[in-house]
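Moderator note: this is an archived Q&A kept for reference. The question asked for a predicted structure of one protein chain; the sequence and the answer are reproduced below.
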Amino acid sequence: MDGSNSVEKRNNVKATHYRSKLFEPFDHLEKLGYRLRLLDNESVAVVHVPGFAVDAFDVYGNCHAWGIVKMIGRAVDFAHCFALDSSSERFFLDYAILFDELFTFMASSSIEFDKSLYNPLVSKWPLNINVHLGYVGTSSINFVSNIVEPSSGEILVRNVNQLVAIDKETRKPTPLPSWWKKKHGDKAVRKEPLIVQKLSKPDDAHTYTFRVSWSEIDLYNHVNWTSYVLYSINALHHGIKEGVLRGINKEVVKNGVQRMQMAYFGECVEGDQLTVYFWEVEDQPRTVYFDMERDGRTVFQNTLTYHKKE
Protein backbone atom coordinates (compact mmCIF):
# COMPACT_ATOMS: atom_id res chain seq x y z
CA MET A 1 0.00 0.00 0.00
CA ASP A 2 1.46 3.39 -0.97
CA GLY A 3 1.72 6.57 1.10
CA SER A 4 -1.91 7.52 0.46
CA ASN A 5 -3.05 3.96 1.24
CA SER A 6 -4.61 3.58 -2.19
CA VAL A 7 -6.57 0.37 -2.59
CA GLU A 8 -5.77 -1.32 -5.88
CA LYS A 9 -8.25 -3.45 -7.74
CA ARG A 10 -7.85 -7.12 -7.00
CA ASN A 11 -8.82 -9.92 -9.38
CA ASN A 12 -9.24 -13.65 -8.82
CA VAL A 13 -8.51 -13.49 -5.09
CA LYS A 14 -10.41 -15.50 -2.53
CA ALA A 15 -12.56 -13.18 -0.43
CA THR A 16 -12.21 -12.98 3.32
CA HIS A 17 -15.03 -14.03 5.64
CA TYR A 18 -16.16 -10.46 6.22
CA ARG A 19 -15.82 -9.41 2.60
CA SER A 20 -17.88 -12.32 1.33
CA LYS A 21 -20.51 -11.76 4.01
CA LEU A 22 -20.84 -7.97 3.95
CA PHE A 23 -19.45 -6.71 0.67
CA GLU A 24 -21.14 -9.13 -1.73
CA PRO A 25 -24.35 -7.03 -2.06
CA PHE A 26 -22.17 -4.08 -3.14
CA ASP A 27 -19.77 -5.98 -5.38
CA HIS A 28 -21.36 -4.42 -8.46
CA LEU A 29 -20.19 -0.99 -7.30
CA GLU A 30 -16.56 -1.96 -7.86
CA LYS A 31 -17.47 -3.17 -11.35
CA LEU A 32 -19.16 0.18 -12.01
CA GLY A 33 -15.99 2.08 -11.21
CA TYR A 34 -16.24 2.80 -7.49
CA ARG A 35 -12.76 3.09 -5.93
CA LEU A 36 -11.56 3.56 -2.38
CA ARG A 37 -8.48 5.22 -0.90
CA LEU A 38 -7.71 6.18 2.67
CA LEU A 39 -6.04 9.37 3.87
CA ASP A 40 -4.77 10.86 7.15
CA ASN A 41 -3.58 7.65 8.77
CA GLU A 42 -6.64 5.78 7.49
CA SER A 43 -9.05 8.12 9.30
CA VAL A 44 -10.71 9.41 6.10
CA ALA A 45 -12.19 7.28 3.33
CA VAL A 46 -12.40 8.82 -0.14
CA VAL A 47 -14.82 6.98 -2.38
CA HIS A 48 -14.49 7.80 -6.07
CA VAL A 49 -17.84 7.41 -7.84
CA PRO A 50 -18.61 7.78 -11.56
CA GLY A 51 -21.30 10.39 -10.90
CA PHE A 52 -25.05 10.67 -11.37
CA ALA A 53 -27.05 8.51 -13.76
CA VAL A 54 -29.37 9.98 -16.37
CA ASP A 55 -32.49 9.31 -14.28
CA ALA A 56 -30.98 11.13 -11.29
CA PHE A 57 -32.31 14.45 -12.58
CA ASP A 58 -35.82 15.86 -12.31
CA VAL A 59 -37.84 17.65 -15.00
CA TYR A 60 -36.13 20.94 -14.06
CA GLY A 61 -32.65 19.50 -14.58
CA ASN A 62 -31.88 19.36 -10.85
CA CYS A 63 -30.45 16.32 -9.08
CA HIS A 64 -33.17 14.41 -7.24
CA ALA A 65 -32.66 14.74 -3.49
CA TRP A 66 -33.33 11.02 -2.98
CA GLY A 67 -30.81 10.14 -5.70
CA ILE A 68 -28.17 12.16 -3.88
CA VAL A 69 -28.99 10.47 -0.59
CA LYS A 70 -28.85 7.04 -2.24
CA MET A 71 -25.42 7.88 -3.68
CA ILE A 72 -24.15 8.84 -0.23
CA GLY A 73 -25.59 5.66 1.26
CA ARG A 74 -23.95 3.44 -1.34
CA ALA A 75 -20.59 5.21 -1.02
CA VAL A 76 -20.62 4.82 2.78
CA ASP A 77 -21.50 1.13 2.44
CA PHE A 78 -18.65 0.74 -0.03
CA ALA A 79 -16.18 2.49 2.30
CA HIS A 80 -17.21 0.34 5.25
CA CYS A 81 -17.40 -3.05 3.58
CA PHE A 82 -14.56 -3.00 1.04
CA ALA A 83 -11.62 -5.06 2.32
CA LEU A 84 -8.38 -3.06 2.30
CA ASP A 85 -6.27 -5.97 1.06
CA SER A 86 -6.77 -9.49 -0.22
CA SER A 87 -5.14 -11.47 2.58
CA SER A 88 -6.47 -9.93 5.79
CA GLU A 89 -9.66 -8.73 7.40
CA ARG A 90 -8.82 -5.02 7.44
CA PHE A 91 -11.56 -2.48 6.83
CA PHE A 92 -11.98 1.25 7.13
CA LEU A 93 -12.32 1.95 10.87
CA ASP A 94 -12.83 -1.82 11.37
CA TYR A 95 -16.48 -1.10 10.64
CA ALA A 96 -17.29 -4.42 8.98
CA ILE A 97 -15.77 -6.29 11.91
CA LEU A 98 -17.49 -4.07 14.48
CA PHE A 99 -20.92 -4.69 13.03
CA ASP A 100 -20.50 -8.32 12.08
CA GLU A 101 -22.49 -9.14 15.22
CA LEU A 102 -24.60 -5.99 15.37
CA PHE A 103 -27.34 -4.27 13.47
CA THR A 104 -27.46 -0.52 13.01
CA PHE A 105 -30.54 1.66 13.08
CA MET A 106 -30.58 5.10 11.48
CA ALA A 107 -31.64 7.49 14.23
CA SER A 108 -31.28 10.85 12.48
CA SER A 109 -29.78 12.48 9.42
CA SER A 110 -28.87 16.01 8.40
CA ILE A 111 -28.16 16.94 4.79
CA GLU A 112 -27.17 20.32 3.35
CA PHE A 113 -27.21 20.84 -0.43
CA ASP A 114 -25.01 23.65 -1.69
CA LYS A 115 -26.54 25.92 -4.32
CA SER A 116 -23.72 25.02 -6.72
CA LEU A 117 -25.08 21.46 -6.84
CA TYR A 118 -27.85 22.78 -9.07
CA ASN A 119 -25.51 24.74 -11.34
CA PRO A 120 -25.37 22.93 -14.71
CA LEU A 121 -21.84 24.27 -15.25
CA VAL A 122 -20.56 22.38 -12.19
CA SER A 123 -19.51 18.89 -13.29
CA LYS A 124 -21.25 15.91 -11.67
CA TRP A 125 -18.99 13.27 -13.32
CA PRO A 126 -16.99 11.97 -11.57
CA LEU A 127 -17.38 12.80 -7.86
CA ASN A 128 -15.62 11.98 -4.61
CA ILE A 129 -17.43 11.22 -1.37
CA ASN A 130 -15.28 11.76 1.73
CA VAL A 131 -16.35 9.75 4.78
CA HIS A 132 -15.22 10.66 8.30
CA LEU A 133 -16.04 9.24 11.70
CA GLY A 134 -18.13 11.98 13.30
CA TYR A 135 -19.04 11.23 16.90
CA VAL A 136 -18.66 8.21 19.21
CA GLY A 137 -21.08 7.72 22.08
CA THR A 138 -21.97 4.84 24.36
CA SER A 139 -24.11 2.92 21.88
CA SER A 140 -24.28 5.35 18.97
CA ILE A 141 -21.97 6.84 16.39
CA ASN A 142 -22.31 9.24 13.52
CA PHE A 143 -20.51 9.61 10.21
CA VAL A 144 -19.84 12.79 8.25
CA SER A 145 -19.94 12.43 4.46
CA ASN A 146 -19.25 15.17 1.92
CA ILE A 147 -19.81 14.99 -1.84
CA VAL A 148 -16.87 16.78 -3.45
CA GLU A 149 -16.25 17.93 -7.01
CA PRO A 150 -12.71 16.52 -7.52
CA SER A 151 -11.15 19.16 -9.77
CA SER A 152 -12.09 22.14 -7.60
CA GLY A 153 -12.46 20.50 -4.19
CA GLU A 154 -15.84 22.23 -3.84
CA ILE A 155 -18.20 20.55 -1.37
CA LEU A 156 -21.60 20.07 -3.02
CA VAL A 157 -23.39 18.15 -0.27
CA ARG A 158 -22.76 17.78 3.48
CA ASN A 159 -24.28 14.88 5.38
CA VAL A 160 -24.27 13.64 8.99
CA ASN A 161 -25.90 10.29 9.84
CA GLN A 162 -26.50 9.19 13.44
CA LEU A 163 -26.56 5.40 13.93
CA VAL A 164 -27.49 3.28 16.94
CA ALA A 165 -25.87 -0.12 17.58
CA ILE A 166 -28.55 -2.80 18.00
CA ASP A 167 -28.09 -6.26 19.50
CA LYS A 168 -29.21 -8.87 16.97
CA GLU A 169 -30.91 -11.04 19.58
CA THR A 170 -32.59 -8.53 21.88
CA ARG A 171 -33.17 -5.92 19.14
CA LYS A 172 -32.27 -3.26 21.70
CA PRO A 173 -29.45 -0.67 21.78
CA THR A 174 -26.16 -2.14 22.93
CA PRO A 175 -22.85 -0.47 23.94
CA LEU A 176 -20.06 -0.20 21.41
CA PRO A 177 -17.12 -2.47 22.37
CA SER A 178 -14.35 -0.80 24.33
CA TRP A 179 -11.60 -2.08 21.99
CA TRP A 180 -13.14 -0.26 19.05
CA LYS A 181 -13.68 3.00 20.94
CA LYS A 182 -10.11 2.91 22.21
CA LYS A 183 -8.68 2.24 18.75
CA HIS A 184 -10.77 4.69 16.71
CA GLY A 185 -12.48 7.12 19.09
CA ASP A 186 -9.85 9.84 18.68
CA LYS A 187 -10.52 9.96 14.91
CA ALA A 188 -13.96 11.52 15.44
CA VAL A 189 -14.31 15.00 13.91
CA ARG A 190 -17.44 16.00 15.85
CA LYS A 191 -17.84 16.41 19.60
CA GLU A 192 -21.57 15.86 19.83
CA PRO A 193 -24.30 13.55 18.48
CA LEU A 194 -26.79 14.62 15.86
CA ILE A 195 -30.02 15.21 17.74
CA VAL A 196 -33.12 16.14 15.73
CA GLN A 197 -35.97 17.35 17.93
CA LYS A 198 -39.31 15.63 17.47
CA LEU A 199 -41.91 17.68 15.63
CA SER A 200 -45.37 18.44 16.96
CA LYS A 201 -47.95 17.69 14.28
CA PRO A 202 -50.75 20.28 14.02
CA ASP A 203 -54.40 19.23 13.83
CA ASP A 204 -54.85 20.80 10.38
CA ALA A 205 -51.93 19.00 8.68
CA HIS A 206 -52.52 17.81 5.12
CA THR A 207 -52.31 14.10 4.28
CA TYR A 208 -50.93 11.81 1.58
CA THR A 209 -51.38 8.02 1.80
CA PHE A 210 -49.60 5.20 -0.06
CA ARG A 211 -48.30 1.64 0.32
CA VAL A 212 -44.65 0.63 0.52
CA SER A 213 -43.33 -1.07 -2.63
CA TRP A 214 -40.75 -3.84 -2.96
CA SER A 215 -38.33 -1.48 -4.77
CA GLU A 216 -37.98 0.58 -1.57
CA ILE A 217 -36.76 -2.32 0.59
CA ASP A 218 -33.15 -2.78 1.74
CA LEU A 219 -30.95 -5.73 2.71
CA TYR A 220 -32.73 -6.05 6.05
CA ASN A 221 -36.08 -6.35 4.21
CA HIS A 222 -37.13 -3.01 5.69
CA VAL A 223 -37.73 0.31 3.97
CA ASN A 224 -34.34 1.80 3.18
CA TRP A 225 -33.61 5.01 5.08
CA THR A 226 -33.20 6.90 1.81
CA SER A 227 -36.71 5.98 0.62
CA TYR A 228 -38.27 8.30 3.18
CA VAL A 229 -36.78 11.23 1.30
CA LEU A 230 -38.72 10.15 -1.79
CA TYR A 231 -41.89 9.80 0.30
CA SER A 232 -41.45 13.35 1.63
CA ILE A 233 -41.03 14.89 -1.80
CA ASN A 234 -43.90 12.88 -3.30
CA ALA A 235 -46.17 14.17 -0.51
CA LEU A 236 -44.93 17.71 -1.10
CA HIS A 237 -45.72 17.56 -4.81
CA HIS A 238 -49.12 16.11 -3.98
CA GLY A 239 -49.67 19.21 -1.85
CA ILE A 240 -48.58 21.47 -4.71
CA LYS A 241 -50.96 19.72 -7.12
CA GLU A 242 -53.85 20.02 -4.66
CA GLY A 243 -53.03 23.66 -4.00
CA VAL A 244 -52.86 23.28 -0.22
CA LEU A 245 -49.37 24.73 0.28
CA ARG A 246 -48.95 28.50 0.57
CA GLY A 247 -45.18 28.99 0.49
CA ILE A 248 -44.12 26.13 -1.78
CA ASN A 249 -44.93 25.94 -5.49
CA LYS A 250 -43.26 24.73 -8.68
CA GLU A 251 -41.16 27.89 -8.93
CA VAL A 252 -39.73 27.33 -5.45
CA VAL A 253 -39.04 23.67 -6.19
CA LYS A 254 -36.96 24.67 -9.23
CA ASN A 255 -34.44 26.26 -6.84
CA GLY A 256 -33.52 22.84 -5.40
CA VAL A 257 -33.53 21.45 -1.87
CA GLN A 258 -31.32 23.39 0.55
CA ARG A 259 -31.45 21.20 3.66
CA MET A 260 -33.22 18.31 5.37
CA GLN A 261 -33.34 17.35 9.04
CA MET A 262 -34.68 13.80 9.46
CA ALA A 263 -35.49 11.59 12.43
CA TYR A 264 -36.32 7.87 12.36
CA PHE A 265 -38.55 6.27 14.99
CA GLY A 266 -39.61 2.93 13.54
CA GLU A 267 -39.35 0.49 10.66
CA CYS A 268 -41.63 -0.36 7.76
CA VAL A 269 -41.83 -3.29 5.37
CA GLU A 270 -43.27 -4.00 1.94
CA GLY A 271 -47.05 -3.61 1.86
CA ASP A 272 -47.31 -1.28 4.87
CA GLN A 273 -49.66 1.62 4.42
CA LEU A 274 -48.16 4.95 5.43
CA THR A 275 -49.88 8.25 5.96
CA VAL A 276 -47.75 11.35 5.45
CA TYR A 277 -48.88 14.43 7.36
CA PHE A 278 -47.32 17.63 6.05
CA TRP A 279 -47.66 21.29 6.97
CA GLU A 280 -46.05 24.73 6.87
CA VAL A 281 -45.22 27.27 9.57
CA GLU A 282 -45.89 30.92 8.85
CA ASP A 283 -42.46 32.33 9.75
CA GLN A 284 -40.48 29.50 8.08
CA PRO A 285 -40.31 30.33 4.34
CA ARG A 286 -39.78 27.62 1.70
CA THR A 287 -40.06 24.96 4.41
CA VAL A 288 -42.37 21.98 4.79
CA TYR A 289 -42.62 19.64 7.80
CA PHE A 290 -43.48 15.94 7.55
CA ASP A 291 -44.69 13.27 9.97
CA MET A 292 -45.13 9.73 8.60
CA GLU A 293 -47.29 7.25 10.46
CA ARG A 294 -47.94 3.52 10.23
CA ASP A 295 -50.95 2.25 12.15
CA GLY A 296 -51.20 5.59 13.93
CA ARG A 297 -47.58 5.61 15.16
CA THR A 298 -44.85 7.95 13.90
CA VAL A 299 -42.01 6.18 12.06
CA PHE A 300 -40.30 9.18 10.46
CA GLN A 301 -40.18 12.98 10.48
CA ASN A 302 -38.52 15.44 8.15
CA THR A 303 -38.02 19.18 7.90
CA LEU A 304 -37.30 20.14 4.29
CA THR A 305 -36.25 23.61 3.10
CA TYR A 306 -35.73 24.80 -0.48
CA HIS A 307 -33.15 27.32 -1.65
CA LYS A 308 -34.12 30.95 -2.10
CA LYS A 309 -34.12 32.22 -5.65
CA GLU A 310 -31.02 34.27 -6.39
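Archived answer notes: The first strand starts at residue 35 and ends at 39.
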